[in-house]
Amino acid sequence: MKKTNAARLLDSKKIAYELVEYHVDEADLSAIHVAQSLGQNVEQVFKTLVLRGKKTGVFVSVIPGAAELNLKKAAKISGNKSVEMVLMKELLGLTGYIRGACSPMGMKKPYPIFIHETCLNFEYIYVSAGKRGMQIKINPKDLIACTGAQVSDLIDS
User: Are the C-beta atoms of 31 and 47 separated by less than 8 Å?
Assistant: First the structure.
């Protein structure tokens, strides 16, 4: 199994994690499908969303796989009046990752990261390893420490 930028970053910081492979369905890149493929609770499989605020620029939200991001909450937490998802055609250039393989770790630039507070309810969560078909199983506190993420309420309850 080839290491990704995200895995190499964790190695360099001596953070424990596990790389977990799964079968990719190009027609369904959703976190819900990833959770089903892994046989895991979808609440523990987090998706990485890249947004842009008019005031602060690009930032990242990491939320539970089946949840919808609340744009108003994301705007407020990030210091913006409004935010929008970056265009898919911009994703690779901004992050170094493609849709369905965007990891909150190892991006081209160190963007501000906000992670949904429910991550702390679990001993471990899954996030993309930066490659389709590969997830990183990690303790959420280690992910927060590695990325400098701010724990926030980002979704509708």
Answer: yes
